[in-house]
Amino acid sequence: MNKMDSESSRHNKLESILQDRSLEPHSIALEDLRKITNNFSEEQLLGEGGFGKVYKGEVQNGDTIAVKMLTSTMLGIKAKQFENEMHHLMRLKHPNVVQLVGYCSETEKVLVEYNGKYVYAEKSEKLLCLEYLPKGSLRGHLSDESSGLDWDTRYKVIEGICYGLHYLHEEWKVTPIIHMDLKPANILLDDNMVPKIADFGLSRIFGEEKTRTCTTSRDGTLGYMAPEYINKGIITKKLDIFSLGVIIIEIMTGHKDYPDEDNTSYQKFIELVLKNWINRLEKEPGYTSREIDCQQIRRCIQIGLDCVKFDRTKRPTTVQIIEMLRFRPTTCKIIEMLDREVRSLVN
After folding, report:
1. Fewer beta carbons under 10 A from the terminal one: N or C of the chain?
2. What's the average model confidence in pLDDT over 111-126?
3. pTM of the full structure
4. Catalytic positions, please?
5. Helix, strand, coil proportions of the chain in percent (round to 5)?
6. Worst-scoring range by mean pLDDT, 110-124, 174-188, 196-210?
7. Which residues form the signal peptide (predicted)?
8. Is 210 annotated as a binding residue?
9. Which among 113, 108, 129 is positioned nearest to 17, based on CA atoms?
10. Domain residues of the chain, as ranges?
11. Could you tell me the end-to-end alpha-carbon distance of the chain, in angstroms, rounded to an integer?
12. What value does the mean pLDDT take over residues 20-24?
């Protein structure tokens, strides 16, 4: 086979892998990834974080993928980061979890200067090929109640994140997966604003006999990390639940602030958020679904506040969260509840 035939064969293989998402993730050659990202050019850069950069890869047939290149190091955390993410993503299949479509792990010899001389050294490249999510991360879509995404969209985003996390914690085939760095920047959105949980670089799998562990490192993002993790390095599924609560509050209000844990502060906060949303919703022409929306708003903000409780044992599980999202009180109860709420807000 000549060089042109070989290149054509590789391109066909790459295109078939990207077209059939039902296939198991395949190894993709570094040379091919260089071509579809224009040699990892700045023009193709989608974003970057502590562990590497993400590039837009454009295949000849028009398909697009996201190529995550981990920061090059000989040994240590970056290699572990790749192995961890590969291990999880290769086996995860859920509409609210980002899908891995391929990967690359190659070592090449490069010429480097060492003690005044040029010598060949081995350079390891590790990359993940992920589905491309055109709307970017949730972080770029956050705003307060008065502007930005409408309530229906925000509710669907909250639902999707909860279902994705429920899959990781409870529905995963083997053992629970704890994400450990859940935040808006790690939640990507597709064309229909469907959220997908991404970046499992800090994830850890726990066996049934090991539901809790401690760590001396504090990898994660301040503002979303649970207090027991910051103070004692304790890792349980409730760590992710705390992060989820902050995200829900941020989706609904545009900020991460929440009240102290006393009943009066909680109720005032809920009433304020509900009032702000009623003010916006009532301005929409032909608006008729106040009862349903107010029910959802109250329920979501309550879930958010329950998730950020200081005592992790008082935070709900994803099973309980899904039950709360699915709860549908009777019409009479909704009207009765809302009448009381509206009267209190007016007064």
Report:
1. C
2. 83
3. 0.83
4. 181
5. 45, 20, 35
6. 196-210
7. none
8. no
9. 129
10. 11-131, 138-346
11. 82
12. 61
